[in-house]
Known about the structure:
Elements: E1 10-16, E2 21-26, E3 30-33, H1 41-44, H2 55-63, H3 69-76
Parallel strand pairs: 1-3
Antiparallel strand pairs: 1-2
Zinc ion binds at residues 16, 18, 20, 35-36, 38-39.
Amino acid sequence: MKDEIHPDYQNCKVHCGCGNTFLTRSTKAEIHVEICGACHPFYTGKQKFVDTAGRIQRFQEKFKWTGDAAQRKAADKGPKKKVAAPAPSAEQ
Ligand SMILES: [Zn+2]
């Protein structure tokens, strides 16, 4: 290796957003990540939304979407009550 041109390859502590930490080697002393092998859905087998910018919440607010929206939609397809038009001479 040539002198004075290579960055310092040192022990590195990785901090994940889930609270997990582990050691590896890097040119940086510390790395902060959003997802790791302990919390990634591929390894946990659980469904999880990785939402770093609040995009899912914005979507849900915009379209009023909740988990049971499909059920409510099915309920809405039931018989509708017709709103009777007010009688023209009711208050006179
Ligand atoms: Zn993690």
